[in-house]
Amino acid sequence: MIGKLKGLIDSYGEDFVILDVGGVGYQVHCSSRTLQHLPSPGEAAVLSIETYVREDQIKLFGFRTDQEREWFRLLQTVQGVGAKVALAVLGTLAPADLANAIALRDKAAVSRTPGVGPKVAERIVTELKDKAPAFANVDPAVVHLAGAVDDQRAPRPVADAISALVNLGYGQPQAAAAIASASRSAGEGAETAQLIRLGLKELAK
């Protein structure tokens, strides 16, 4: 199996690059984000590779980092997500942004991917929610709170305060982060109005 290729960019296709490795041109399929970050033809590049072997073909998928390749694998563990959809998701969201979106249950961010509807986005967020926090760079308290709200386990004042901020036009992840911070400041037993006030202050910083 091929795990990494290092060579010169020969040419680009719509969703692939030809990488010249010692005179052999490898056709490597990449996300649009990866293709945008690769250098011009004739310049050197290194790609982490995922090799797919089928009865009638061998297909190579290339990634700028091992972490991106790991997300490609993880995404395909979700029902209804194949290689094409996984690449499209990684073309829309960088690995860190994808991890944050899943950790915060931000289905809207995932469904911005062309070809990914609300149901598939819901499955991605739900089925990978236990794996995402390890990659996410958000406050664990916010991840915990987002999960509690999504599972309807959050205290009523907290859930109501987040809902109020969302109704004011803030995104769910922003609102959850602001109210998580407000909850820490106010302590347990804080009322909805107090949490909203503190949350708005947090958002104004």
Summarize, please:
Helices cover 49% and strands 18% of the residues. It is α+β, with helices and mostly antiparallel strands and 205 residues long. Residues 73-92, 108-127 form the Helix-hairpin-helix DNA-binding motif class domain.
Describe the structure.
There is one protein chain. By secondary structure, the protein is of the alpha+beta class. It has 3 domains: 4-63, Nucleic acid-binding proteins (OB fold (Dihydrolipoamide Acetyltransferase, E2P)); 66-134, Orthogonal Bundle (DNA polymerase, domain 1); 140-204, no CATH class. It contains 10 helices and 5 strands, in the order E-E-E-H-E-E-H-H-H-H-H-H-H-H-H. The protein has helices spanning 32-37, 66-75, 83-92, 95-103, 107-110, 118-127, 140-150, 156-167, 172-186, 192-204, and strands at 4-12, 16-21, 24-29, 44-53, 58-63. Strands 1-2-3-5-4 form a 5-stranded mixed β-barrel. Strand 1 and strand 2 (16-21) form a beta hairpin. The termini are far apart. The mean pLDDT is 86. This is Holliday junction branch migration complex subunit RuvA. It is found in: Cytoplasm. Its main location: cytoplasm. Residues 73-92, 108-127 form the Helix-hairpin-helix DNA-binding motif class domain. GO terms for molecular function: ATP binding; four-way junction DNA binding; four-way junction helicase activity.
